Amino acid sequence: MKIRIFDRASGYTGYSRNISGLAMALADLGVDVKVIQQKTDEYFPDKLKPLMEYNQQKAFQDIDKDTVVMGRTFAGIEGLRSFNPKMICTILVLEGDRIPEDWVARANMCDQVWASSTYNKEMLIKNGVACDIAVIHHGFDQEIYYSKWDKHE
Fold first, then answer.
1. N or C end of the chain: which has fewer CB within 10 A?
2. Which pLDDT tens digit goes with each residue over 60-82?
């Protein structure tokens, strides 16, 4: 499988950490994954460096009928359709019960939305997202979360 994530994986926000964690986990599973974003001096894990692509034109040329294209809130989703990807999906992780109407409209232009929980899936449906919604739970790795000084047995 080939996945191209047009999103931001650098920085310390929860969302950028979700994107970087997802990309690294997919790579660990053998998926051909790249994260496409502008070059920045912001932090991102060393393990993510080989998965980064800074040339958006090159990334566009790499999209084919076997590529899953992902992003958060595709402003140019219509343009991505012209590359005939296998699927266009987005990831929506929200704790509230309402999402902006323009996010709903963009989500409905996608083939699939990845929600982080069954609650998120129910919230998306309640707000009018009508495309396929898959629940992809967040992973947890104790080796990353707990440092060697506060290891819990």
1. C
2. 888 999 999 988 756 667 778 88
Reference 20, options 149, 143, 138; nearest CA is: 138
Rounded to whole angstroms, the Cα distance separating 43 from 103 reads 27
Name residue, tokens 């084919």.
Answer: 64
DSSP structure string for 17-81 = HHHHHHHHHHHHTT-EEEEE----SS---GGGGGGEE--HHHHHHT--TTEEEEESS-TTHHHHH
CB 4 within 8 A of CB 62: yes
CA 9 to chain centroid, in Å, comes to 9
Full-model pTM: 0.79
Q: Is 102 helix (H, G, I), strand (E, B) or coil?
A: helix
pLDDT, position 4: 93
d(CA 64, CA 138) in angstroms, rounded, equals 28
Contact 115, 136 (CB under 8 A): yes
